[in-house]
Amino acid sequence: MVHRGSITSLTMVAALIAGTYGCGDASNGTDTGGGAQSQVLGAAVAAVSRQITASGVTTARPVVFRNTPNSKTVPAGSKSASSKAQAPGCGRPAHLTSLGGRITGPTVTLLPVFWGNVASDTRTSISTFLNVIGNSSWLTQIQSEYGFPQPLMASTPTFPGVTITPQVSTGSTVTDSDIQAELNWQISNHFLPSGGAYLYLLHFAPGVTPQLDAFGTGLVDACTPDPNFFFAYWCAYHGTLGGTQSLYAVIPDHSAGNCSVNFCASVPSSLAAMQVGESHEIAEALTDPDIATGFRDYSSSSPCAGAEIGDICGGQALTITAGVGTTWVQAEWSNKANACVSSPAGLADMDGDGRSDLALTGGVGWATMPVAFSSGDGTYHGTNAGETSGDTGFPDYAQVSGAKPVAGDFDGDGFADIALVGGAGWATMPIAFSNGDGTYRGANAGEISGDTGFADYAQQSGAKPVAGDFNGDGLADIALVGGVGWATMPIAFSNGDGTYHGTNAGETSGDTGFADYAQVAGAVPVSGDFNCDGLDDIALVGGQGWATMPIAFSNGDGTYRGANGGPTTGDTGFPFYAQVAGARPVAGDFNGDCFADLALTGGGGWATMPIAFSNGDGTYRGTNEAEIFGDTGFADYAQATGALPVAGDFNADGFSDIALTGGQGWGTMPIAFSNGDGTYHGSNQGEASGDTGFPGYAQQTGAVPVSR
What we know:
By secondary structure, the chain is an alpha+beta fold. Helices cover about 15% and strands about 35% of the residues. It has 11 helices and 50 strands.
């Protein structure tokens, strides 16, 4: 991405998704020289950055894609067009900070603006795109983490956007100055709304080509390789309209011309590439609206120096489903997850659609793994499949005495996986790595460095496993608490390939009793990021006689800081509710504020759900509310024999929810969908497609549900 200051009152940022042609053959996707050329390109970008910086213009490096053909044109949607080798953004490590720009300013309305007779499939694609992201966790993840107001969507299936007829800039090519002038004219003459803050998403008719001096080599058409800059090409940019609160993004026509063949992401069609580019610009415009004052990586030593949220993850495309359909988006950088994500960190999302799913393990005699993939509306589609490769023993391992399952993304691919610990006699850790379709790849490996006793610790009396990303590297890890006589906490830090490195350390500061508290009768450990620092922590609830909640805040290196606080406001009974017979705790972000919270279900005679909303410092605010609409039986269902709660964001709205499985005789799955304020709305539905046996499987002997 190249940032440039305009000579007018408009500040513009070119959010570049670039490509370069290397040596190779488009027909087979081979690359015989791209690595060296990428290094040359990177050096050239750095040189341009230094040159433009010296003249007083803020810059950052472009996001680079390498195409392998010898300048061969291939049809949109073909294998060659979608097999471009994509760079994983600008590199690692990365961290976004804000210089205090208007991130928390007025609510922005996303408004598609069609410049002339825009192609009908483009209009339809953008309408679907905005409907999906407006109902998905892709947008709420960015909003909740970086703190801007939830944007409004001025697009519906019946009103896709505003069409303008250019009056000032009527040529077949338009520069950024032309675009500025036209926007100002349309606003001044009331053809575009201007009250409040808008993000005008500009789409162009076929035959109208935006131009940009993206690399300091002169004006270049969108998606057109620049022969003066290693054949890199730009695909989109965003800017701020001077004198207003409004923003704009330039998205070239992808129905014809160069953008229909030169994609800026490895996706199957030009419209998919357009959606990826549009998501890139939306995320950056909302987190850095006044260029270089909002969220960027300002560290001069970082490989992502100067990058905005989309640059770090450039080209990492995926599909999400919500609302009325499915769309392509780009994953965006999360400080919290220390990774490129499409949904809030910590979700047990086994197919990468932004919604939490449920899996079952340990059923007697099972050779497969039932999974309920959430549809987002309380229904789900079922699968019951097995390994496709690797170690093939996972279903058997899950039935071994002492084996306990935990879920997390142990390889950082965006799909939640399942690990087993504690099996009698084990010296390794079985993991089922999700393939995203209900099948999985098996592994069964051990420590390769550090403390080598984890497998043994997991078999000791009282040891309870919890999964979380305790070092912020984007890979889920496993900690053990509660072992009899322990004064430390063993952790298996994932290496991403089924192996792990071990630590066994204790508190460094704060309350020093956590290891002892974990051994108290009734104490149950739950993990979550209770202070929103990007590192998962562990809380304990239910200890006999407790009036507070011990928390081990991770330091990221296997050590932790202790706290043992209580409620500051609201209902103050949470520690006591947690000791009620039948009460089971689950962790999740139930109000979408980035701090993990705790909820309780299943207490005898309860008609409400106690929640402890984290304040981020070891204290919390209490509520104890009920359903306000929908199926009103959740509290009763939670008390049914065999019912077990699991938390996750099952409708991808940014609020964690709670599902119940395993109740005797059930043919459906009750879910309490959080409203964000301690109340919830209930549903109790079944499979919508696929394998229809999930509720029955959950009742079988040995079956254990796992989500997160």
